[in-house]
UniProtKB/TrEMBL annotation:
It comes from Thermosyntropha lipolytica DSM 11003. One of its GO terms (cellular component) is cytoplasm. The record marks E111 as: Important for acyl-CoA specificity. It catalyses: L-homoserine + acetyl-CoA = O-acetyl-L-homoserine + CoA. It is found in: Cytoplasm. Keywords: Acyltransferase, Amino-acid biosynthesis, Cytoplasm, Methionine biosynthesis, Transferase. GO terms for biological process: L-methionine biosynthetic process from homoserine via O-succinyl-L-homoserine and cystathionine. The active site is at C142 (acyl-thioester intermediate), H235 (proton acceptor), E237. One of its GO terms (molecular function) is homoserine O-succinyltransferase activity. Gene3D superfamilies: 3.40.50.880. HAMAP family: MetA_acyltransf. This is Homoserine O-acetyltransferase.
Length: 306
C-alpha cells in the first residue's frame, strides 16, 4: 500500500522515479481504509532532503500512511524556502488537539549546544510531553533521541573527542525484541554526531532497553519497554551519498573532519561508497510501524476522549 503525501510535495517526484508507490490525498479519500496517521517533526536544516529520506523508509508498509509534516514555531529555518514551509508544514499549535498513531522527531545540527540553549527547546519539551498521551509510539533520531532521553529520563549526553562519522557494525542485544525481527546478526547504521549517551546511565533506568550497540559507535538503539518511545542514535534513513556530501561540505568550510569510516571502498574518498545499511534501516522502520504502531494503536484514536 502507498504512503499518502500532500499534492505537489517535491519528494513525490523523487520517490516515483525510484518506483516507490505514493498516493495523493484525493485518491486516498476514495478508499475505505483508515490510514495510519504519522507526524514528522522535521528539525533538520534542509527539510526537503529529510522528508524524502523518511518517506522512503515508511513507504514499504502495507497499510496506508497519512503524513503531517511539522516545523517549529519558535525557530524559522534558514535553509528551506518559506513558501515550502507555508505550503506543506504545520506547527504544534495546528495539531496539538489531535492524536497520532506515530510520530518521528528528526535530528538537528545543535549537538554541541546545551539542551536549554537551543532556541526551540521549550517548544520541543512541550511536544515531547504531548507525545506521551497523544501518540501511540514516537521514533526519535540522533539529537532528538538524546534530547528525549534527557527530557524523559534525565540521561545526559556527552561531547565526543571527535565526530562519530561513518557506517558502523552493530550487534543485537535482544534478538527476540519485535523491533529486531528479521535483522541480520550484524546491523549496519550510518552515524554523524558529535555527542553520545553512556550505556551505564541507560542501564540504571529499568524502563529502558538497549537493543543495538557497537564497539566503535557505542549505544545505537534504545527502546522503552512499553514500546512507546524509540531512540535511534544513528541515521538508518540516510541516502547513499549523505555522508559523502557532509564530508565534502565540511572540507569546503575548512573544518577539521575525518574521512567517514567504513564508507568508501578502501576508505578512499576518491572511490565509490559502500551501501550496506539500506535494508536494515527499512526493516527497522517497518518493524516499528507494524509492532509498535499498527498492532497497538486503536482504530478510533479518540475513543478515550469520548
Amino acid at each position: 500500500m502507498p504512503i499518502i503525501i500532500p499534492e505537489n510535495l517535491p519528494a513525490a517526484d523523487i520517490l516515483a522515479q525510484e518506483n516507490i508507490f505514493v498516493m495523493n490525498e484525493y485518491r486516498a479519500l476514495h478508499q475505505d481504509i483508515r490510514p495510519l496517521k504519522i507526524a514528522i517533526l522535521n528539525l533538520m536544516p534542509i527539510k526537503t532532503v529529510t522528508e524524502t529520506q523518511l518517506l522512503r523508509m515508511l513507504s514499504n508498509f502495507p497499510i496506508q500512511i497519512e503524513i503531517d509534516l511539522l516545523t517549529t514555531e519558535t525557530y524559522q529555518s534558514k535553509h528551506t524556502p518559506a513558501e515550502h514551509l507555508k505550503t506543506f508544514y504545520k506547527t504544534f499549535s495546528d495539531i496539538k488537539h489531535l492524536k497520532y498513531d506515530g510520530m518521528i522527531i528528526t535530528g538537528a545540527p545543535v549537538e554541541k549546544m546545551r539542551f536549554g540553549d537551543v532556541a526551540y527547546w521549550k517548544e520541543l519539551k512541550e511536544i515531547m510531553d504531548y507525545t506521551v498521551e497523544n501518540v501511540t509510539s514516537t521514533f526519535h533520531i540522533c539529537w532528538a533521541a538524546q534530547a528525549a532521553l534527557y527530557h524523559h529520563y534525565g540521561i545526559h549526553n556527552y561531547l565526543l573527542p571527535e565526530k562519530m562519522f561513518g557506517v558502523f557494525k552493530h550487534r543485537i542485544n535482544n534478538p527476540r525484541c519485535e523491533l529486531m525481527r528479521g535483522l541480520d546478526d550484524e546491523v549496519f547504521i550510518p552515524h554523524s554526531r558529535h555527542t553520545e549517551v553512556h550505556r551505564g546511565e541507560i542501564e540504571k533506568v529499568p524502563e529502558l532497553e538497549i537493543l543495538l550497540e557497537s564497539d566503535e559507535a557505542g549505544v545505537a538503539l534504545v527502546i522503552s519497554r512499553d514500546g512507546r518511545q524509540v531512540f535511534a542514535m544513528g541515521h538508518s534513513e540516510y541516502d547513499a551519498y549523505t555522508l559523502k556530501e557532509e564530508y565534502e561540505r565540511d572540507l569546503r568550510k575548512g573544518e577539521k573532519i575525518n574521512i567517514p569510516r567504513h564508507y568508501f571502498i578502501d576508505d578512499d574518498p576518491s572511490k565509490e561508497v559502500i551501501v550496506n545499511w539500506r535494508s536494515h534501516g527499512s526493516l527497522i522502520f517497518t518493524n516499528w510501524l507494524n509492532y509498535y504502531v499498527y498492532q497497538l494503536t486503536p482504530y478510533d484514536l479518540y475513543a478515550d476522549s469520548k
